[in-house]
Write a structure and sequence with these properties.
The chain is of the alpha+beta class. It is elongated and about 85 Å long. 17% of the residues lie in helices and 51% in strands. The strands form 2 sheets. Strands 2-8-7-4-5 form a 5-stranded mixed sheet, with no helix packed on it. It has a 3-stranded antiparallel sheet with strand order 1-3-6.
Length: 132
């Protein structure tokens, strides 16, 4: 073998090794395609007794979801409002309302959770707002 053949073979082997070791572009995961946006109420917003709290949110996923849950939980862990719906779609618009029947100062945690698949994959978002 002459030195040009050896050099050419070495270059070809190096190219094959380099191509074989390159990582594939990472696939877009469901988490990267998905989001939960809460438009109302907003973080730290305060509501008085008998005010109506409009719950508006949008859930988007890159795959078909299997439903959602909404919960309002007081700072003492008491659930004061909960609702769920089993739906099959990639985008969910939520428009609900709750009348503040609480007295005194409270912190409420609003959680919106979507079930992405039947294997337990979920995505969620929480905000905290106040009543007085």
């Amino acid at each position: 073998m002459n030195k040009y053949t050896i050099t050419s073979l070495a270059a070809i082997i190096m190219l094959i090794v380099e191509w074989g070791c390159k990582k594939a572009d990472p696939a877009i995961t469901i988490e990267e395609q998905s989001n939960v946006e809460i438009a109302s109420p907003y973080e730290s917003q305060t509501f008085k007794t008998n005010d109506t709290v409009f719950i508006k949110a949008q859930i988007n996923a890159g795959v078909e979801m299997h439903g959602y849950e909404i919960s309002l939980v007081k700072n003492d862990s008491v659930v004061i409002y909960a609702e769920s719906e089993h739906v099959h779609c990639t985008e969910i618009d939520i428009e609900k309302k709750w009348v503040n029947n609480l007295t005194g100062q409270n912190e409420l945690k609003l959680t919106i959770k979507a079930t992405v698949d039947h294997e337990g994959m979920e995505m969620s978002k929480c905000i905290v707002f106040k009543t007085e």
